[in-house]
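Take one record.
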Amino acid sequence: MDIDFTPFFQQYEALLKTADAVFEKVKGEYPECVKCTTGCSDCCNALFDLTLIEALYINQHFNKKFEGKEAEKGQLVEKANRADRQVYKIKKAAYKALEAGTEETEILNSLAAERVRCPLLNDQDQCDLYEYRPITCRFYGIPTAIGGKGHTCGKSAFVKGEQYPSVNLDIIHNRLYQISGELVKAMQSKFVKMGEILVPLSMALLTVYDEEYLGIGDAESDAPPSKQGDAE
């Protein structure tokens, strides 16, 4: 596949660098409140999705790190398959609840309470791809806000109702969508809305991001195929 993701990965890495700097700044200002330590994996069970640029970045570094390590990679793929099936069931139930008339806020709160173990979390409760972990993981543990509503890690010591500097995740997400959209245009993909798609990390690991999937070349499909590794 003759696609150079480098310029877009560099934009994404600049965002990651900013995220790390913000986390360290808040941790430095409120050391008694940030409880993140080696071996704490609370954030590694949270349910969240990745934008296209994040998914491609994770996928590429996953395949690169475990190239030639088929046994290790196979174990991770199996864990990703299990996690993906669990996420699918959770989202299917949420969709059915929405169709049945359940309030969206109630559904979102329910999804936020779900726990799905990240397939990259090993038996020592450490990340097998820590250096390349998603931006959501990097903000976990400090106050954030999305849609005007504040959030923080339940293990932290930030006090509810008090004022703290918070990361506006709406701005971060908009930037991720922007980078993803620019990538789709640069690829001249026939799937013009691919930059708006969100996927769980498990699917990002399993998907084969070849030219057919990305809508490049002579493929006849009008929608991105669900092309993954072995799903069962």
User: Anything to note?
Assistant: The mean pLDDT is 91. Residues 20 and 166 are 14 Å apart (CA to CA). The radius of gyration is 18 Å.
